């Protein structure tokens, strides 16, 4: 309801938002879609998304987001120049990162194979996942949310919850918090430690992300077998 009044204020159709004081007084709603998914739920989600018959690019962008544990906008706006597939590395420039620092992402073989499959289709464009109506722009991350709504997942999961799930599951798999945080590009306030992390954790993150890619395959296969 407050969104209606916010729009009315923005378009000068109302002077104030009467819902705002009530909304501020209420405790924040911890929505289900931002919680960490279980392994079974991840498998079912990936299986549902792959098989829903939607846009090919949307399916692949969603899969890349999960394989790299990247933010939705980082995935859908990915540029071909950022990838070194021979080294299985994705270097996201500072201008596209939330913390405004370059981020190096080690890619599992599943992500490399996905990108190699995409290259004959969109390799001649700037973006891995170009906009359907304007190939000079990337696709919008709203496409992911629209697909999830169609599949009935919108109330249970948001693309922004992917990284919460990855962090939780990788911790359960025994990986060190520092390596997980480095993969998620969470800000490190100490510049010396940040440099150390960058140099030290890349090899560990390579192993971790390959393990992660394998787990996603296992969980998805289990969901397929159970359907």
Automatic annotation (TrEMBL):
<dbReference type="GO" id="GO:0015074">
    <property type="term" value="P:DNA integration"/>
</dbReference>
<feature type="domain" description="Tyr recombinase">
    <location>
        <begin position="32"/>
        <end position="209"/>
    </location>
</feature>
<protein>
    <submittedName>
        <fullName>Integrase</fullName>
    </submittedName>
</protein>
<dbReference type="GO" id="GO:0003677">
    <property type="term" value="F:DNA binding"/>
</dbReference>
<comment type="similarity">
    <text>Belongs to the 'phage' integrase family.</text>
</comment>
<dbReference type="InterPro" id="IPR050808">
    <property type="entry name" value="Phage_Integrase"/>
</dbReference>
<dbReference type="InterPro" id="IPR002104">
    <property type="entry name" value="Integrase_catalytic"/>
</dbReference>
<dbReference type="InterPro" id="IPR013762">
    <property type="entry name" value="Integrase-like_cat_sf"/>
</dbReference>
<keyword id="KW-0229">DNA integration</keyword>
<dbReference type="InterPro" id="IPR011010">
    <property type="entry name" value="DNA_brk_join_enz"/>
</dbReference>
<keyword id="KW-0233">DNA recombination</keyword>
<dbReference type="GO" id="GO:0006310">
    <property type="term" value="P:DNA recombination"/>
</dbReference>
<dbReference type="Pfam" id="PF00589">
    <property type="entry name" value="Phage_integrase"/>
</dbReference>
């Amino acid at each position: 309801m407050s969104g209606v009044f916010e729009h009315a204020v923005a378009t000068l159709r109302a002077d104030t938002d009467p819902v705002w004081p009530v909304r501020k007084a209420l405790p924040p709603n911890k929505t289900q879609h931002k919680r960490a998914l279980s392994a079974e739920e991840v498998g079912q989600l990936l299986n549902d998304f792959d098989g829903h018959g939607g846009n090919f690019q949307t399916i692949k962008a969603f899969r890349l987001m999960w394989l790299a544990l990247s933010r939705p906008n980082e995935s859908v706006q990915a540029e071909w120049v950022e990838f070194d597939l021979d080294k299985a590395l994705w270097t996201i420039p500072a201008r596209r990162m939330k913390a405004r620092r370059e981020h190096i992402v080690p890619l599992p073989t599943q992500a490399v194979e996905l990108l190699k499959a995409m290259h004959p289709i969109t390799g001649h464009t700037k973006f891995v996942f170009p906009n359907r109506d304007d190939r000079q722009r990337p696709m919008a991350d709203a496409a992911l949310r629209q697909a999830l709504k169609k599949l009935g997942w919108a109330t249970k999961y948001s693309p922004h919850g992917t990284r919460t799930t990855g962090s939780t599951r990788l911790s359960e798999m025994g990986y060190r918090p520092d390596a997980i945080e480095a993969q998620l590009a969470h800000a490190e306030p100490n510049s010396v430690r940040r440099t150390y992390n960058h140099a030290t954790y890349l090899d560990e993150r390579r192993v971790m992300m390959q393990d992660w890619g394998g787990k996603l395959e296992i969980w998805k296969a289990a969901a397929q077998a159970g359907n």
